[in-house]
Amino acid sequence: MSKEVTEILKLGEDAIVASALKSIGGSISLENFASATVLSNGEEVYVSFRNQYKYLPINTIYYFDVGVNITTETTYKNSVSNPYGYTNEETIPYFQLTEDIKKHIDFVKQTIGSLEGFEDDIIIRENEDYYAIEVVSESQESSYKIKKSTGEIYDEFHAHLEPIPFDVDDAEEFKEVDFPEIKK
Q1: Is-contact 77 63, C-beta < 8 A?
Q2: 3-state class of 177 per DSSP?
Q3: pLDDT tens across 136-158, in order?
Q4: Which residue range is the domain that position 155 belongs to?
Q5: Phi, psi (5° rounding) for residue 178?
Q6: What angle do CA 16, 49, 122 make, to 5 degrees?
Q7: How many domains are there within the chain?
């Protein structure tokens, strides 16, 4: 582990996350995200802000996930829209979970069934009569629709993805930082 990374990690998880939020700018807070994770590969420190469930009402666009490389002072963000390709003339807002949005997400989760241990992203695009669902993991990509009125699942599509065609050097891979271990 580099000396710079060691010094950053000594600041502690809360200080690193706060620094990352500050570098994003605007009126963003942890409330915009379901999780914040500090990662390192020994040479760099990265903070991943994430929303596992990405719900989009009709004609909307949001930033759901943001990555901040503390070491290089670089921010990465990607917008998701409904419908695909939707844009607006305004600044793209960061997702904010509301009670109404939570009801839509809960309906989809209840319809899908057990998601215990499920860590992949789910994109939920609302339409007039149904929700269009996309699930992407390392090994599979799925999409289907759920009727709003009945919860019926239809138009299912599943594809198994091939693993990346090269090995990632374990030393270069970003891993979650174990902060109690840092203090030892």
Answers
A1: yes
A2: coil
A3: 877 788 899 999 999 999 999 98
A4: 3-182
A5: -95, 95
A6: 165
A7: 1
How many whole angstroms separate alpha carbon 63 and alpha carbon 114?
A: 27
10 Å Cβ neighbour count for 169? 8
For the record, the structure tokens of 158 come out as 């599943």
Question: Could you tell me the two tokens for 124?
Answer: 């939920």
Per residue in 29-79, pLDDT tens?
Answer: 999 999 999 999 999 999 999 999 999 999 999 999 999 999 999 999 989
Cα separation values, 130 from 103, 108, 120, 153, Å: 14, 10, 21, 9
Q: Please give the Cα distance from 184 to 181 (Å, whole number).
A: 6
Q: CA–CA separation, 178 vs 28, rounded Å?
A: 25
Question: How many Å apart are CA 49 and CA 54, to the nearest integer?
Answer: 13
Q: CA angle 27-127-99, nearest 5°?
A: 45
- What are the start-end ranges of the E strands in 22-152? 35-40, 45-50, 53-56, 60-69, 74-82, 121-126, 130-136, 140-147
pTM of the model: 0.87
Cβ neighbour number for residue 90 with a 10 Å cutoff: 7
Report the run of H or E that residue 158 belongs to, with start and end.
Answer: strand 153-160
